[in-house]
Inverse folding.
C-alpha cells in the first residue's frame, strides 16, 4: 500500500469513527431525553444536558433571518470543501500523518454539525414551542397555547438545529480576580465541537514539526531562540502566579476547596507543559525545570498547612484567639 493510501485510510477511519460516535450520541439524546434534562456523568462536574443551538460550533450564529441561517449552512459547506481540498493537497505533498489527522478531526467536526442542520428537521418531530426553537426576529410566529405567540426558527433542509449535550460544570475559585465564581467553560458542546477543538489544538502544539519544511534553518533557529526566551520567562511567571494562587487556596470555603485546587492545578500543569515546549527544553534541563515547577509551588502549601495546623492546636488546647 502506498503512503498516500495508508494516510487516507487512517484519516478516513478517524473521520468515520468521529461522525459515527457523534451521530449515535445525538440520536440517543433526541430519542431518550426531554429538553434540558440532565444526566450526571461525573457528579455535578461533568454531565449530559440536552439542548439544541441554532448556530455552529459552541452556538455561533450569523443572525435570525432565514438567509442568515442559510448563509451559515452554506459557509459550513464551503469550509468543509476547503478543508477537504486542503487535506488532499497536503497529503499529495507527503506531509506528516499527524497534520493530516489534525485536519481530519476538524473536517469530521464540521461535517458532524452540518448533518444535524441538513436532516434532523425531517427525521425528528419539530416542536416550535420548545425554547431552543424560539428565534426573535425570524418573522415566523407560532401560537404556543396559554404561553402566547412566539417567533420561531425556520425549518427545512440546512435549517435544522445542532444537538449539544456535554457540560463541564466547574467554576473559578471565588478569590480569583475578574473571573471568580464564574463558570470555567459555560458552553454546552458535542463530539463534533470537541473534534474541531482537538484538531486545532494539535496544530497549535505541533506547528513547528508540522510546518518545519516551510522555513529556512536560519529562520527556524531564530524562531526557536525567541520561543525559548518566551517559554523560560513565561514559565517563571507561571510558577510565581501559581504560588500566589496556591497560597490563596486556604481562604476558599471548605465546600469549594477541592474543586478550586483541581482547577488551579490543571491550569498550572497545562501552563508548565506549554512553556516547556516553547522553551524547547531537553535532557537535564527539562528534568530541572519539572522539579522546579513542581517543588516551588508546594512550599507555600506546606508552610500554610503547618501554620493552619498550629493555629488549630492552639485553639483546641484552650487558648482563645484575640478578637
Amino acid at each position: 500500500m502506498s503512503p498516500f493510501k495508508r494516510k487516507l485510510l487512517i484519516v478516513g477511519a478517524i473521520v468515520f469513527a468521529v461522525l459515527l460516535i457523534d451521530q449515535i450520541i445525538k440520536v440517543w439524546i433526541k430519542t431518550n431525553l426531554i429538553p434540558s434534562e440532565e444526566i450526571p456523568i461525573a457528579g455535578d462536574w461533568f454531565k449530559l444536558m440536552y439542548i439544541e443551538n441554532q448556530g455552529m460550533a459552541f452556538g455561533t450564529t450569523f443572525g435570525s433571518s432565514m438567509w442568515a441561517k442559510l448563509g451559515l449552512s452554506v459557509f459550513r459547506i464551503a469550509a468543509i470543501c476547503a478543508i477537504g481540498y486542503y487535506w488532499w493537497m497536503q497529503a499529495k505533498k507527503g506531509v506528516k500523518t499527524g497534520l493530516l489527522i489534525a485536519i481530519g478531526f476538524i473536517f469530521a467536526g464540521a461535517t458532524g454539525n452540518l448533518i444535524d442542520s441538513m436532516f434532523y428537521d425531517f427525521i425528528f418531530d419539530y416542536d416550535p414551542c420548545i425554547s431552543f426553537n424560539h428565534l426573535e426576529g425570524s418573522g415566523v410566529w407560532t401560537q404556543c397555547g396559554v404561553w402566547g405567540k412566539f417567533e420561531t426558527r425556520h425549518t427545512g433542509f440546512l435549517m435544522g438545529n445542532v444537538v449539544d449535550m456535554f457540560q463541564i460544570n466547574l467554576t473559578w475559585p471565588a478569590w480569583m480576580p475578574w473571573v471568580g465564581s464564574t463558570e470555567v467553560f459555560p458552553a454546552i458542546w458535542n463530539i463534533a465541537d470537541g473534534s474541531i477543538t482537538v484538531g486545532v489544538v494539535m496544530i497549535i502544539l505541533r506547528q513547528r514539526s508540522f510546518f518545519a519544511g516551510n522555513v529556512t534553518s536560519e529562520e527556524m533557529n531564530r524562531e526557536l531562540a525567541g520561543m525559548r526566551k518566551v517559554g523560560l520567562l513565561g514559565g517563571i511567571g507561571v510558577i510565581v502566579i501559581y504560588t500566589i494562587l496556591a497560597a490563596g487556596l486556604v481562604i476558599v470555603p471548605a465546600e469549594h476547596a477541592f474543586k478550586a485546587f483541581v482547577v488551579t492545578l490543571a491550569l498550572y500543569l497545562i501552563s508548565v507543559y506549554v512553556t516547556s515546549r516553547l522553551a524547547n527544553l531537553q535532557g537535564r534541563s527539562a528534568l530541572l525545570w519539572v522539579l522546579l515547577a513542581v517543588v516551588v509551588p508546594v512550599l507555600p502549601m506546606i508552610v500554610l498547612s503547618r501554620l493552619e495546623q498550629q493555629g488549630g492546636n492552639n485553639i483546641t488546647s484552650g487558648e482563645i484567639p484575640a478578637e
Summary: Residues 312-323 have pLDDT under 50 and may be disordered.
